[in-house]
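Lecture 7, part 2: worked example. A protein chain together with flavin mononucleotide.
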Amino acid sequence: MGSIDNVILSRRTIYKFLDKKVSAHLIQKALEAASNAPCHKHTHPWKFYSIGNKSRNLMIPEISKLAEIKAKKRKSDNIKESVDRAIDKIVSAPVLFAVTSKLNPNDPFREKEDYAATVCAIHNMVLSFWANGVGSHWSTGSITRTDETYRILNIDGEKEEIIGFIKAGYPKKVPSVAKPAVDEITYYLE
Ligand SMILES: Cc1cc2nc3c(=O)[nH]c(=O)nc-3n(C[C@H](O)[C@H](O)[C@H](O)COP(=O)(O)O)c2cc1C
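Predicted complex, written out as structure tokens:
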């Protein structure tokens, strides 16, 4: 993959994965990258829950329920297909993490800084994977936000918030995405 610049510039969200295992070694490296993210006050507010097959299977009824509601809302003519696709996205992801950030209702500024640090940790993980040929997809779909997911994963929603699922695996296809030019996002002040 080459230099850090190349890793950053070539990374894209990967939506479809090859049926190929990601080694425990690469997952460990990505977790180490996450753990080395910058973090104000050293609060280390993130947790990475590796979701195995048993927990994924327990989520199927909730995934089905949510996918059916969504498909009906957009008047899909093939609800079963939408539901099966939603289940497959979770069940067949080669790697699946739920990532949480610590809540701090008494200190909204700390909570915001902690959220920012957790986002850094996630992106460190994503870039570590990408540097080793593994693609990722950050998802904040409804399954990541429902009470049932907190219950199944045994996450205390009063203390931590799931800020996304990270699916990872070897890419089937790397999409191309247009990004804003640097001069569209940069403001030079005298
Ligand atoms: C906070 C966050 C939440 C996201 N949630 C979803 C999601 O729920 N579903 C999805 O398909 N992609 C999701 N994505 C991926 C974005 O759609 C993707 O980053 C965007 O299309 C830009 O593409 P790129 O990552 O290849 O640059 C999310 C990305 C971020 C940063």
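The beta strands are 46-50, 95-102, 135-139, 160-169. The mean pLDDT is 97. Keep this in mind for problem set question 3.
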